[in-house]
Design goal:
Length: 274
């Protein structure tokens, strides 16, 4: 019997996993979004979401996610580029990735100690003769820590795209008299855009729903959609409103995934140089 006839059987475990751990949770979230805190069916949750409070919350979430993604890309792209030019690039890449293996909570508490009033940063500031500064519980500390955490996830896809770049394209651009900036703008950037899109996708989407860092690093000064969901489920016990916010968060994620999707032709990623 042809082996291809057994292929659908190979998909059964995968489909079961998707059904129970992806589709079922989304269906449950959508279902609970139609109930209020008393368990009665209502459309109020969706009406309330479009009021000023949640609209401002959504805008703030997108703004912080944009800042985190922007600064992460700003640091990750040149870092990935210089790593591809080093002799032991795989070793350097490993050193970049290793911090991502450390538990997120441990890294967050480490930054609390570093940025605290009695931490090494304030100790250095006081040694210079200045007063202690409240670095924690600010927008800066939140964005800084989030960028640090997400940098490895941005570097990896960009590194892969740069590492697979055909050097003959760069030689051709140089032979044609293109400057370094022109070569980057017309050759390197378009050919590595898929890697950038992948990096933006894996950074922007999680940044949109951050909640633990917002609590520990930013205190209550930064409220995102993730923080609102946590508060609705764990504090106010309003599962309906929490589910409604989660529904819109899922919709936003699908839109972002669509916008950052990479084009493929013939089953392979295709880059077009303009």
């Amino acid at each position: 019997m042809n082996k291809s006839n057994f292929r659908p059987w190979y998909m059964i475990p995968y489909m079961i996993w998707i059904a129970f751990f992806v589709i079922a949770p989304i269906v449950l979230i959508f279902y609970y979004s139609f109930f209020d805190i008393t368990g009665a069916f209502t459309w109020t949750n969706y009406v309330d979401f479009f009021k000023s409070t949640y609209l401002i919350l959504t805008i703030n979430s997108f703004w912080y996610a944009f800042l985190i993604t922007f600064f992460t890309l700003l640091i990750a792209y040149p870092t990935a580029y210089f790593i591809t030019k080093t002799k032991h690039k795989q070793l350097w890449l490993l050193l970049v990735i290793v911090p991502s293996w450390i538990n997120l909570l441990l890294k967050t508490y480490a930054f609390i100690g570093i940025m605290g009033l009695h931490g090494p940063i304030n100790a250095f500031i006081t040694a210079l003769g200045f007063d202690q500064q409240q670095i924690l519980f600010t927008d800066f500390s939140f964005v800084f820590v989030a960028v640090y955490i997400f940098i490895p996830f941005m570097i990896l896809p960009i590194f892969n795209a740069l590492d697979q770049l055909n050097p003959s394209y760069l030689d051709a651009a140089k032979d044609l008299g293109a400057s370094g900036w022109t070569t980057f703008r017309k050759v390197i950037w378009p050919l590595t855009l898929n890697g950038v899109k992948s990096g933006v996708q894996v950074v922007f989407i999680p940044a949109l729903s951050l909640f633990m860092i917002t609590r520990l690093i930013a205190g209550n000064k930064v409220i995102t959609l993730g923080t609102a969901i946590e508060q609705q489920f764990l504090v106010t016990q309003n599962w309906g409103m929490g589910s409604t916010i989660a529904v819109f968060l899922i919709i936003f994620m699908f839109i972002i995934m669509r916008l950052t999707a990479t084009k493929e032709i013939g089953g392979k990623k295709h880059d077009k140089v303009k």
